[in-house]
Design brief:
The protein is α+β, with helices and mostly antiparallel strands. It has five helices and 13 strands. The chain has a single domain, classed as Roll (Pnp Oxidase, Chain A). Strands 2-1-5-8-9-4-3 form a seven-stranded antiparallel β-sheet, covered by helices on one side. The protein has a two-stranded antiparallel ribbon with strand order 6-7. A two-stranded antiparallel ribbon has the order 10-11. A hairpin with a 5-residue loop joins strand 12 and strand 13. The protein binds flavin mononucleotide (FMN). The site of flavin mononucleotide (FMN) has 18 residues, from strand 2 and helix 2.
Length: about 210
Amino acid sequence: MIIDPNKQSFGENHKLMIGSIVPRPIALVSTVSSDAKNNLAPFSYFNGICSNPPTVMFAPGRRGYDGLTKDTLNNIRETEQFVINIVSNEIGEKMVTCATDFPSDVDEFEISGLTPKRSVKVEPPLVSESKVGFECELNQIVEIGEGGPGAGFVVIGTIIMFHIDDDVYNDGRIDIEELKPIGRLAGNSYSHIRDTFEIIRKVHID
Ligand SMILES: Cc1cc2nc3c(=O)[nH]c(=O)nc-3n(C[C@H](O)[C@H](O)[C@H](O)COP(=O)(O)O)c2cc1C
């Protein structure tokens, strides 16, 4: 089967993408509005870009039903700061309660019961229950598409402070057995990392 994305709706394209790009890491992103309201929301179009400087991206789309931009993006445009909190098993349910489309003055820390913890260099708080957090400052926002529902943005940020729980930090590396990150699949499905294996790579030609 071949499918031309221009011959079906963005919703149909969306289903093919979220079912194929799996599992996706989840960034629980905290931001603060210009009137000092906390906001917390998950984004699974999320990844690293490079490590010099340490740079990450995530993609807050326009709302599928009215094309409006999400609070997270609006806050980052105003403040140029955000915190990425990595989602472990233990906070999966609470993370999902932050994904409801609440009015912008609702603080999802209060809704979810997750605990805000003061960051060192930025205003948005860390999620205390998250085992890894990145304080980020905005590098740039790239707009994608024509501005309708399903279009979106790529938010690129520089990590200016790492927060890593002692139990997941092992000699400069992250212990995945302790981190227990969950991955996003299509719809309401998630994955655990329980079955890992190695494939040895030859870096140089002998
Ligand atoms: C696990 C998970 C991952 C999500 N990933 C994205 C994403 O990558 N991009 C996006 O626009 N929305 C994503 N959402 C939906 C947003 O979290 C949701 O629209 C939220 O209400 C946005 O909040 P905000 O308006 O406070 O920014 C995701 C939801 C869940 C539960």
